[in-house]
Amino acid sequence: MTSFTIEAQEIRIFTVKDFDLKDSVQTCLVNTKYGKEEYEFLKDGRLSKSVTRHSDADYNITYYKYDGKFLKEKRFENYRENNFDPSTSIANIYTIDSTATLKITEKILTYSKEFLEQYEYMYSKENVLEKITRTNDTGIDITTISNTSFKGENTKTYNLNGEIIKSIRTSKIKNKNTPEQKLVLTKTFLNGEAISAEEDKINQKDKIVSKTKFLFNTDKKEFEPQEVILYDYNENDMLIKTEEKLEDSVTIKEYLYQYDDGNSGNWIKQIITPDNSYKTRAITYFE
Predict the structure, then answer these.
(1) Could you read off the pLDDT of 191-200 as tens digits, one per residue?
(2) Cβ proximity of 85 and 109 under 8 Å
(3) What is the C-alpha radius of gyration for the chain, rounded to an integer number of angstroms?
(4) How many CA atoms lie within 13 A of 276 on its CB side?
(5) What is d(CA 230, CA 208) in angstroms, rounded to the nearest whole number?
(6) What is the DSSP string of 165-177?
(7) Of 223, 215, 164, whose CA–CA distance to 191 is shortest?
(8) What confidence tens digit (pLDDT) does each residue in 100-133 have?
C-alpha cells in the first residue's frame, strides 16, 4: 500500500475569508518568489478549485464539489513534468446521511483505486461533532469529542481510543481599559500527559492579537512560556506588524499593502520588511 500521512480532523470548508479576501471574489492568482497559487470560488464564497504551481510543468490541483451546504468531493491531482500521476493523486468522497442524527462518511482513495482510509463523523442532534471513527489496514481508531461549560468557559476535549490528545478552552477577558477579548487555550497531550500549549487572544473582529507558546516543565509540573507573538492591525483590519519574542531576541516584521480600490478593497501587493519579501495578487470578481 502507498504510504500517506492523513490525520483525523474535522471536515473543513474553505471560503474567501480563509485567504484574506472579501467581497464577491471569483478568482485569485498569487505570485511569490517561491511559485504561484491559484484559487477559484463559487458565488457564495466557497472554494471550488486551488492550484499550487512549483513550475510550469510541476503543479497540484485540488477540486472541491458540494451537495448543498455539505462537501461532496475533494480531489487532489498531482502533475509532474506535465504528466498526471494517479498513484499519488487522492480522492476524498463524502456520503451524507441525515435520516436520524447527521453522519458523514469519508472514503479516501488513490486515483488508481487503492483504498487508503475511511472516516465516519457522527454528530449530535444539535449538529455538533461528537465522534470520528478512522478505519484503515492497521485497524480502527476512535476519536471522541466532548463539550463542557463551566462559569463562562467552554472546553472541547479530544480523546483518541480513550486517551486525551487535545483540549481547547474558550473564555472571555474583560478589562476596564480594553474591549472584551476571547481567550483560546489549546493544550496538546502525549500518552495522556500534557506536553505543549498555545494561548491566543482574539479581538472583537475575530483577529488574533497575541499568541503565547508554552512547553510543559515535567519537573515543575507547569507550563512555561517559550515564545510570544504580538499582532497589530490597521483600520482595514489588515495585519501591519508582528513582534516575536523568543528568549532574549525580538523580531519585528512590518507589512505594507497596495489595494485594488484605493485604500480599501482587497490587497494586490504585500511587502514584508525588513527582508523585503513580497506577494502580488491578481483578483477578478463576479459581476
Answers:
(1) 999 999 999 9
(2) no
(3) 22
(4) 0
(5) 9
(6) EEEEEEEEE--SS
(7) 164
(8) 899 999 999 999 888 999 999 999 999 999 999 9
Cell triple for residue 171? 473564555
Positive or negative, the CA dihedral 35, 72, 116, 132 is positive
All three cell numbers of 33, joined, read 518568489
What amino acid is encoded at 122 in this protein? M
- Residue where the block lists cell 523580531: 251
